[in-house]
Every structure is written in structure tokens, then in C-alpha cells.
Amino acid sequence: MEQEAAFLQALEWAAVSRREGDRLELCTGDGALAVSLVRAR
User: Fold this and answer.
1) What pLDDT, on the 0 to 100 scale, is given for residue 1?
2) How does pLDDT run across 11-35, given as a tens digit for each residue?
3) Which single residue of 2, 3, 27, 33 could bond 16 by disulfide (Cβ 3.0 to 4.6 Å)?
4) Would you say 41 and 28 are in contact if contact means Cβ atoms under 8 Å apart?
């Protein structure tokens, strides 16, 4: 449950998204990385 709570909190902080290839990065308003996701193959 801790991991899920941390993930949901990071989603709330996300203000900017960017995609590069198979990677999706969600960043906070000040540019800090909140979540980095990689598509499974």
C-alpha cells in the first residue's frame, strides 16, 4: 500500500508530461521528476 500511495501522490504533483520513445515522464511545476514510466514490451 505504501508504494501505491507514493505513486498516487506523485501523480498529484505532476504538472508537466513529456514522452520520449517508450518512456513517459511526469514532472512537477518546478521541473523535478515525479514519475518515470516505461512501456513493457
Assistant:
1) 86
2) 999 999 999 999 999 999 999 999 9
3) 27
4) no
Specify the DSSP class assigned to residue 31. Answer: S
Cβ(27)–Cβ(14) below 8 Å: yes
* Type of residue found at 9: Q
Any idea where the domains of the chain sit in the sequence? Answer: 2-38
| H/E run at residue 38 | strand 33-38
Residue type for 16, please?
V
CA atoms within 13 A on the CB side of 26: 13
**Tell me, what's the pLDDT at 25?**
96
Residue 15 sits at φ, ψ, to 5 deg, of -120, -20
Check residue 41 and give its pLDDT.
Answer: 84
